[in-house]
């Protein structure tokens, strides 16, 4: 049975980077008070990229995918599976994955979205891994793409300072050499109330509250505990010890969550890839954006063992362990 190996990656961030100071000045015009000092101290975020009106998840996803394919040395026509993780799709349907497929000029292969909020990328990667392991695909495009700026309540300082827009993509290829060696996913829908965007469309009208709402402290506690449990489980499944991990690429929600987590797992902070300062929380895009940044700056190299982790609304969480 073939393994699935990551052979390429790519990123796309909207060109407009907004610093905490710029954001604070914008929010002050609405009488919403915040500061660079508060945001940096509580979250580690220094800036985020914000999409212009009309920039959609499919546009960012397509660009990230093109770069990942180029990195992998693969032509779009060789792709036989496309999975996009997003909670901010362009439309209710067709899926963002189908839009990306059309943008890339590919026809025929399966293309679908996965919705697991900030865990979306590890859910999508685990799904693509299963397709490759079972022989149903050989070259998969797995993308996390979000325009969370469109679902933020810019009058709610507890949430609007935390997020950014962007997309990250990887190319997975069937290989005799490992590859993804462990993957485990979880969900507990009873925690819906701590993180949600509970709006929808009915009879042509938006019903409910379209914006993201969050109980930050409840999310914080659950995130640390669930990610730590998941890391132990995926390592046990793969028969490796936490000491063997070269790099951790966790979902970028809050630097304090990442510090707690690395301490709890006994993983040195230097092994944790952090892009939160530049990208803020890009939900499903955060793990592939961080992975791509670390591959491109030469930290993550071929042969390294990488633990990727996601956690988010649902509540959902999970881990993928991959030999690069
Ligand atoms: N600027 C200034 N003050 C603020 C801001 C802000 N942007 N936001 C909140 N405050 C104020 C609050 O109003 C409160 O003031 P009060 O005591 O006068 O009411 C004070 O700061 C403390 O607020 P808390 O919400 O208790 O702040 P906390 O230390 O918990 O930090 C945070 C909030 C950063 C959201 C934290 O709870 C957290 O990181 N939680 C994790 C959740 C997370 O990262 N979510 C991302 C999405 S989920 C995911 O990706 C997994």
UniProtKB/TrEMBL annotation:
GO terms for cellular component: cytoplasm. It is an enzyme of class 2 (transferase). InterPro entries: ACP_syn_III_C, ACP_syn_III_N, FabH, Thiolase-like. Keywords: Acyltransferase, Cytoplasm, Fatty acid biosynthesis, Fatty acid metabolism, Lipid biosynthesis, Lipid metabolism, Multifunctional enzyme, Transferase. Catalyzes the condensation reaction of fatty acid synthesis by the addition to an acyl acceptor of two carbons from malonyl-ACP. Catalyzes the first condensation reaction which initiates fatty acid synthesis and may therefore play a role in governing the total rate of fatty acid production. Possesses both acetoacetyl-ACP synthase and acetyl transacylase activities. Its substrate specificity determines the biosynthesis of branched-chain and/or straight-chain of fatty acids. Belongs to the thiolase-like superfamily. FabH family. This is Beta-ketoacyl-[acyl-carrier-protein] synthase III. It comes from Pusillimonas noertemannii.
């Amino acid at each position: 049975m073939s393994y699935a190996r990551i052979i390429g990656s790519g990123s796309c961030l909207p060109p407009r980077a907004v610093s905490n100071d710029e954001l604070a000045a914008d929010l002050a015009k609405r009488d919403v008070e915040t500061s660079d000092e508060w945001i940096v101290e509580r979250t580690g975020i220094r800036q985020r990229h914000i999409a212009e009106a009309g920039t959609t998840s499919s546009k960012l996803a397509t660009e990230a995918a093109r770069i990942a394919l180029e990195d992998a040395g693969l032509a779009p026509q060789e792709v036989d599976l496309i999975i996009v993780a997003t909670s901010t799709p362009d439309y209710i349907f067709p899926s963002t994955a189908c839009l990306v497929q059309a943008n890339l000029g590919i026809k025929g292969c399966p293309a679908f979205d996965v919705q697991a909020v900030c865990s979306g990328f590890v859910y999508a990667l685990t799904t693509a891994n299963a397709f490759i392991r079972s022989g149903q695909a050989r070259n998969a495009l797995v993308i996390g793409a979000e325009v969370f700026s469109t679902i933020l309540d810019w009058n709610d300082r507890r949430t609007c300072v935390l997020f950014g827009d962007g997309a990250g993509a990887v190319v997975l290829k069937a290989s005799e050499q490992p590859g993804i060696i462990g993957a485990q996913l979880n969900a507990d829908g009873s925690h819906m109330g701590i993180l949600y965007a509970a709006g929808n469309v009915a009879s042509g009208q938006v019903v409910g509250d379209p914006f993201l709402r969050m109980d930050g402290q409840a999310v914080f506690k659950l995130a640390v505990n669930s990610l730590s449990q998941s890391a132990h489980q995926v390592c046990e499944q793969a028969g490796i010890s936490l000491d063997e991990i070269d790099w951790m690429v966790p979902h970028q929600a809050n630097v304090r969550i990442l510090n707690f987590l690395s301490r709890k797992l006994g993983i040195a902070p230097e092994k944790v890839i952090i892009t939160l300062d530049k990208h803020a929380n890009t939900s499903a895009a955060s793990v592939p954006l961080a992975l791509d940044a670390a591959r491109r700056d030469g930290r993550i190299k071929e042969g390294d063992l990488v633990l990727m982790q996601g956690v988010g609304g649902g509540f959902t969480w999970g881990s993928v362990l991959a030999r690069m």
